[in-house]
Design a protein that fits this description.
Layout: E1 6-10, H1 14-38, H2 54-82, H3 97-110, H4 130-154, H5 161-164, H6 169-173, H7 176-208, H8 215-218, E2 220-224, H9 225-237
Antiparallel strand pairs: 1-2
Helix pairs in contact: 1-2, 1-7, 4-7
Length: 238
């Protein structure tokens, strides 16, 4: 029986892991508070209306999470230029033959649930596979839509200069109603992506056995030595 040697490889650096979990927390808070803002419940209370500020607290939490989401995204953009090769913006560049070859390989596994008898070691990604890279690129565009539409809706009630930079968005899109609709639809895209993302992470963790889940906590994956050599060779060629 042929055996393969595996090594622990630092794939996800601390700033990447920090970005990931802050993103998870902020998206959960934004989604929950967003639902309450879109359809606020009727609260029965005997207290004076002037003493009730529950909806204001919900809006404050939503806007605070939005700022965290925004600055966290800026951190990730910065790290895409100074981080390792797995965090680099080049890992998300969709216009390469290597990426599309890996793309079809991953689709056969993820969608058609085909497990190749003799998988090509060149097609196994150490960092993000091509499907993940393309989906994260689309997600980044969705995040920009949320930032632009969210701050546009916040412009009229904010006294800070940052949200007011997005005051042109509402007139461009035809008013607050359309902006709010786009903001709400994009939220559902985030929810759908999150469900698929969680499923695929656990699926690949079971299928490949390389520590896919634990890597986002500790940063390390278990990678075959021949794959490490191939990855270093490809990097030197580039």
């Amino acid at each position: 029986m042929e055996t393969k040697n595996f090594k622990r490889v630092m794939v996800w650096e601390l700033p990447v892991r920090f970005f990931h979990w802050v993103n998870v927390l902020s998206i959960i808070i934004l989604t929950l508070t967003g639902f309450l803002i879109a359809n606020p419940p009727a609260l029965q209370s005997s207290a004076e209306a002037t003493n009730l500020h529950s909806f204001g607290i919900v809006r404050f939490i939503h806007f605070s999470a939005a700022y965290i989401f925004f600055f966290n995204m800026i951190l990730r953009i910065y790290w895409s230029f100074v981080g390792n090769k797995y965090a680099s913006w080049k890992a998300f560049w969709p216009f390469s033959k290597k990426m599309w070859n890996n793309f079809w390989h991953v689709l056969k596994i993820d969608i058609m649930l085909l497990n190749e008898d003799h998988p090509d070691v060149k097609k196994i990604s150490i960092g993000h596979n091509s499907v993940a890279s393309l989906s994260y690129l689309v997600l980044f565009l969705m995040a920009l839509i949320q930032v632009f539409t969210g701050f546009a809706l916040y412009t009229d009630t904010s006294g800070w200069w940052l949200p007011k930079l997005f005051g042109w968005v509402s007139p461009l899109l035809g008013g607050d109603f359309m902006v709010r609709t786009i903001h709400h639809i994009t939220m559902w895209i985030f929810i759908f992506f999150s469900l698929v993302h969680i499923y695929l992470v656990f699926y690949h963790d079971w299928l490949e056995g390389r520590g896919e889940v634990s890597s986002m906590f500790g940063g390390y994956k278990f990678v075959r030595e021949d794959r490490i050599k191939k990855d270093n060779t490809d990097e030197n060629k580039n």
